[in-house]
Write a structure and sequence with these properties.
With about 240 residues, the protein is of the alpha/beta class. Helices cover about 30% and strands about 25% of the residues. It has helices spanning about 20-30, 90-100, 120-140, 155-160, 200-205, 220-235, and strands spanning about 5, 15-20, 40, 50-55, 60-70, 80-85, 105-110, 145-150, 150-155, 165-170, 185-190, 210-215. Helix 2 runs parallel beside helix 3 (about 120-140) and helix 2 (about 90-100) packs parallel to helix 6 (about 220-235). Belongs to the RNA methyltransferase RsmE family.
Amino acid sequence: MISRFHFDGRLPDGGEVALPEALAHHAVRVLRLPDGAGLVLFDGHGGEVEAELVVRGKAAFARLGARRDIERESPLQVVLVQALATGDKMDWVVQKAVELGVAAVQPVQAERSVLRLAGERADKRLVHWQQVAVSACEQCGRNRIPQLRPMQPVLQWLAANRAATNFVLAPGGRVGLAQEPPPAGPVHLLVGPEGGWSEGELAAFDAAGCRRIVLGPRVLRTETAGLAALAVLQARWGDY
């Protein structure tokens, strides 16, 4: 397979561009691609560009070829509203959600979230998760980078999104996704933390008109539930 790389900046139409240091290091030093190797570059603004690697000493360039107007975005726009999870679970969720076609990821602080992030720590983690999303796009073929939205408390997020189609994953939910009608627009998929949603949060969701959804009779972990639901949504109304 030809290696794919995200180019941070607008790609011109033809000519040659210098590869950013991190990209050049990964291509030449890590993957050991030789001079003249074929590449695919995308800048996140749609489409992708065939290119040829040019190595000159310690610098690397890309000789640009034809732009291909290829899009691999799902017709169903799903925003994954994921309560913060511990360890590397959030990395896993972001990576796999991007592969499954999510439009955006909204990290939220829930009442029972063990992980607490604010200020500089939160900003650094968001930058890290955005890079996880970029790497996932490089791997899976997407040419647009899903947005990692700024972290906020879940009830603050809810106050601004009451009118949306909001599916809340919760054990004991009333119906499964198979019983839901096709959504009229974007879907928000709310996934709780390891300890689950609090009773107060569930009451707020109900009051806002959110739809409680159950994924079968088994209790799924936070890093499993959202991804399973994403796959179901794609199979029902997306591009599966």
